[in-house]
Inverse folding.
């Protein structure tokens, strides 16, 4: 399972950081950072939720 | 439970309901009914990227055609639900026979309010659908004088897009200060100056008496006697929940479909979600109808849980969230504020185009607003959800 973020779409809403704080962080520069690009299966629900709640549809889950 | 689930309203809440049904293990059939010609698409870009021409309209659908295959759903676009039978679980449609259901999700959203006489004049627009957006965009030709009636979020985003196209814009607003009922007076004033800095003229504290013109709009007559010359008039005067089809159905309606804290309506096996739903939010102890993107998705998921799992589900108690993009400022808001709430600027200032501010009542956080500071907003949304205190964030 791999996290793919389309950074052209991402507008730093930050909703993904609320859904899955283990995986996403927005730093003071205002940009989104992926903390772990290939998380284990245990994170799938949270990651799905982050993808669903992203207002720009920037997050996809590969695999 | 439910073998056949019918979802009425094929937009954000409707699509999210279908996705949640499958994700949560519903194995029966699903029918998604929507009266627009298009399959579900995203509305926020309509007043932003689509209007100013940055995005082609092909970018707004949530899923491509093949994207519906894994959901195994019968999507019927261009079909309107005309009524819900009182004593039978059946919905009548504008096309084909009535459709029976074991479970029903009401997701018919809301439609724009308009002014008397508006439909008789060309050059007068509302903005809710993709077709609305394309029609309005077509009218924004060089030199067109734009009058926006109603300086709410939609009206101000239209103003922002029109200024980016170099068109002169006047915004007319009944309240003295735009957005003061949602964001309080100070934030309303700050947003007003943001627009004034970008060249928007304001007429506030005044209503519209009449739209004037022969065939096409030529001017807007204000209630104080002033006239504004106009080639394009955009009405952003709020929305009404789409509940006409529920008349006589036994589903209680009052400013939207009345739901309890689990998204259940007054009829068994009928739930509602999104802009159409007026729900009891136990977190703030109030009944509210939330007309924002995030609520439509979150509530659709909660409504589906109620349908599949019954009344024992955990209540839906969101901290409402929305954003709005105006010029180079991303405004984000979380919470629920009421007139008289305290307002405290924590960091930044409108002039810097970056700020963090919070609202509170009796020492507790009730809301937060930021400009261009997304991480702060998310942290504050969490704090509001945990019943955080104003004094805690003051020190942070
Ligand atoms: C231009 C614009 C910009 C926006 N920008 C933002 C933003 O920046 N941030 C934010 O948080 N929110 C924004 N919103 C709000 C957000 O888009 C809505 O909250 C969201 O669309 C609500 O989804 P919904 O599915 O509940 O309702 P809707 O999107 O209104 O969908 C309801 C659907 O049901 C259909 N329908 C109605 N009656 C029937 C019937 N009887 N039979 C069949 N179909 C029917 C309607 O035609 C419609 O397709 C914006 C909205 C607009 C219009
Ligand atoms: S929710 Fe989406 S837009 Fe927001 S920061 Fe995450 S990826 Fe970016």
């Amino acid at each position: 399972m791999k996290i793919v973020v389309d950074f052209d779409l991402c507008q730093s809403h930050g909703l993904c950081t609320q859904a899955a704080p283990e995986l996403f962080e927005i730093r003071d520069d205002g940009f989104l950072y992926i903390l772990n690009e290939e998380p284990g299966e245990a994170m799938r629900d949270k990651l799905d939720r982050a993808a669903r709640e992203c207002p720009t549809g920037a997050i996809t889950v590969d695999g | 439970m439910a073998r056949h689930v019918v979802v009425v309203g094929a937009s954000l809440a409707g699509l999210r309901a279908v996705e949640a049904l499958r994700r949560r293990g519903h194995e029966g059939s699903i029918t998604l009914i929507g009266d627009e010609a298009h399959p579900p698409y995203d509305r926020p870009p309509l007043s932003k990227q689509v209007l100013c021409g940055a995005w082609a309209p092909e970018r707004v659908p949530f899923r491509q055609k093949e994207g519906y295959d894994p959901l195994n759903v019968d999507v019927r676009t261009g079909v309107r639900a005309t009524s819900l039978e009182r004593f039978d679980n059946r919905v009548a449609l504008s096309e084909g026979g009535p459709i029976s259901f074991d479970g029903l999700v009401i997701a018919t959203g809301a439609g724009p309010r308009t002014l008397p006489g508006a439909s008789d004049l060309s050059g007068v627009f509302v903005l809710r659908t993709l077709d609305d957006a394309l029609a309005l965009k077509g009218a924004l030709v060089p030199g067109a004088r734009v009058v926006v009636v109603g300086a709410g979020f939609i009206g101000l985003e239209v103003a922002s897009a029109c200024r980016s196209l170099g068109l002169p814009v006047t915004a007319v607003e009944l309240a003295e200060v735009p957005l003061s009922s949602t964001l309080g007076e100070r934030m309303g004033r700050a947003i007003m100056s943001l627009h004034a800095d970008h060249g928007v003229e304001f007429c506030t504290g005044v209503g519209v008496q009449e739209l004037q013109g022969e065939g096409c709009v030529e001017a807007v007559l204000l209630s104080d006697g002033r006239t504004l010359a106009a080639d394009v008039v955009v009405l952003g005067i709020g929305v009404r929940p789409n509940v006409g089809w529920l008349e006589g159905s036994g589903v209680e309606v009052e400013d939207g479909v009345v739901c309890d804290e689990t998204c259940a309506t007054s009829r068994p096996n009928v739930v509602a979600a999104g802009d159409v739903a007026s729900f009891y939010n136990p977190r703030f102890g109030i009944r509210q109808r939330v007309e924002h993107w995030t609520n439509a998705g979150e509530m659709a998921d909660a409504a589906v849980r109620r349908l599949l799992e019954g009344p024992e589900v955990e209540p839906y108690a969101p901290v409402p969230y929305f954003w709005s993009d105006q010029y180079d400022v991303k405004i984000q808001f979380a919470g629920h504020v009421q007139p008289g709430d305290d307002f405290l600027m924590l960091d930044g200032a409108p002039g810097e185009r970056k700020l963090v501010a919070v609202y509170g009542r009796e020492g507790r956080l009730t809301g937060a607003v930021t400009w261009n500071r997304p991480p702060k907003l998310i942290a504050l949304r969490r704090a509001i959800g945990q019943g955080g205190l104003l004094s805690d964030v003051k020190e942070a």
